Amino acid sequence: MRLALKDVVALFDVPEEKIQQWIQKRKFPNHLVRDSMVFDRMEILEWATVTGTRVSPEILRTLFDPHSLPSLLDALTCGGIHYGIAGADMHAVFAAIIRVLNLPKDVDREFLQQVLLARESLGSTGVGDGVAIPHPRSPIVLNTTPHSVSLCFLEQPIAWNAIDGKPVQVMFVLMTPSIHSHLHLLSRLAFLLHDAEVQEAIRAKAKPQRILEVIRKAEAEISPQSA
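Given the sequence above, the corresponding C-alpha cells read:
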C-alpha cells in the first residue's frame, strides 16, 4: 500500500524535516512517482523494525482492524516459544527452526528455508540487541499457513550482519497467509520490542508463561479493548 509523506509523518509522529533527514542519512525507503514522493507501507515498517525506530501507537490502532486480524499474543501462541535451537551458521539455524515450526503438512519446508535465506540476502533482519525477525519477503507464497510468530532462542549466538553488528541469539519468525496480516504483526513487533518488560523477558529467556504475559500487557497499549 502506498503512503504519502503526510501519512509517514503521522506513522512516526515526527516532523516532516525528520523524514527528509532519514531519507538522506538513514536510507529511509521511498519512491518517486510522477514527481511526487511516495512510500510503501511494508518497506517502511521493515525499515522501522530493523533500525529500531519506534512508530506511533496511536497510528497503529488505526492501521488495522483488530477484530479481523490476530493479536501478536494469538500468533505467538500459535507459533510457539522454542528454546535451544542449534546451529553454527545461518543455514543450520534456519534448518533447525523450520523443523519446529507449526506449519501445515503441505508446506515445503526446504523451499521455505530458501525463501528465508533469500530474504536475508536482501538485507539483514537483525534488529539489534541480539534479535532478528526472519520472514518471507512475500508472505502470499505461504497462503496455507496460519498466522503465527515463533519465538526461537538459539543455543549459541550467530553472526547475522545485524544493524548494531552484534550476533543474534533470539528470533521472532513470522509466517502469515497475507501481506495484510504480515504488516499487522510486523508493525506490532516493531512497537513491542521497545517495551522494557518485553526486552527484559527476552534477555532472560523467561518461561513461556512470563513471555506471553508481558506480550499481552504491552499489546494492550495498542489495543486496550483486546486486553
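DSSP finds ten helices and eight strands in the chain. Try to locate this feature in the C-alpha cell string yourself.
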